[in-house]
Amino acid sequence: MKLFLIGANGQIGNQVLEQIKANEKHSIKAMVRKQEQLEKYQDSGVDAVLADLEGSVADLAKAMEGSDAVIFTAGSGGNTGDDKTLLIDLDGAVKAMEAAEQSGVNRFVMVSAMQAHNRENWHKDLRTYYVAKHYADRMLQNSKLTYTIVRPGLLLNEPGTGKVSIAENLGQGSIPREDVAKLVIKALDNEKTYYRSFDLISGEQSIEQAIESL
Amino acid sequence: MKLFLIGANGQIGNQVLEQIKANEKHSIKAMVRKQEQLEKYQDSGVDAVLADLEGSVADLAKAMEGSDAVIFTAGSGGNTGDDKTLLIDLDGAVKAMEAAEQSGVNRFVMVSAMQAHNRENWHKDLRTYYVAKHYADRMLQNSKLTYTIVRPGLLLNEPGTGKVSIAENLGQGSIPREDVAKLVIKALDNEKTYYRSFDLISGEQSIEQAIESL
């Protein structure tokens, strides 16, 4: 598949990019916001394109034309204000969905946040972030796209174990970013994950087994 | 109709309340957040109930049980932060929709903001407000409710003229809050407004004519 990665500069996005380099099934194009990022990727042999989640849907659609799937791992990050959370994590995400629909990219894998679908489980200090993720996810579920919504628990920078637990609702837990990226890539062309949303933490099953059990 | 008013303490909400007092077709219940507000309304003979848009959907559903229509005029206001905009104008609004669905209140009239549906026309300084209104409106359009979305232009405190212009898209314009409230009330049981969203500014037509021309 020809993948279109939004959020390549983020930590999960970077993991996806690194893993795809070693994967013969897929090719990837990274969307970046700045000319210097574009050059950095191109210099290292990574296909990249300039576009901005704060820009127009038309520009985003043009950037992703010809792709088979969008992987959305972007986030405004913890150091920006609530305005950026709204504009990137919610409106930016939905613009990416609209762009995918417009440009005929039918597959969309969203990296969300654990329990984003259950208001009662939102961390009190992160409510604006959860509101943004919650509605981005619901807009994706209401879209025409073949979606998968992956909701990882606390993200770790440890090496991945390849062992996970996935389900509609899981208790608190954590997972290495490397394993989130692994699952996202395995999910891409696995029909078991189509139109599904699930929490994801480290667990006992291999990623393949976990997906089969969905 | 038995109306359930969310945002009674706001300026448009207060206009709706005052106008309904003189309207024999409808009765109204005002949702308020504080005990002192409850007492103020009850002392003046207005039916009121305590509930909070930051509370649970179940509590909101209980508060609106037995009503025929929800009028949503609430807003976090210009003096609160972007977090409240998200939690009230977006998540609070959608919780009210879910509560209406749960409690069998089928009719929902939303007061939105002019051009909230067109990103390119959002005021740059008010983008977070427009993102919140935009997605609240889209969630309502995706709901099972018989909705009407009224998107007024610049709101004035002048007396109403009763003359308006409504259309899917209008250029810039203003309108007295009194006329917004009048239109909302006339729209309630007028099928021409069902499943419709429109901009609203002062104009040349009576409210009845404008609604008929939809």
TrEMBL record, chains A, B:
Q: Which CDD domains match?
A: SDR_a5
Taxonomically, the superkingdom here is Bacteria
Which residues does the UniProt record annotate as the domain NAD(P)-binding? Answer: 7-190
Protein's name according to its UniProt entry: Sugar epimerase YhfK
